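Practice problem: predict the structure.
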Amino acid sequence: MDDCGTCDRCIHRPCIAESNREYEEHGVIGKGAYGIVYLVTHVPSNKQVLFFFPMNFR
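Answer:
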């Protein structure tokens, strides 16, 4: 389990805000068998978008 250490929302990937400064993370929308959906704001355009991060399958 990865954890960036800056928030309590990190589960399988580092925070979006830490990974990419163009996006501001607001929280987890949902968690499921296939991955996690985050609500984020694209800072340059000020638009809210959803990011889906699939879980790693081996």
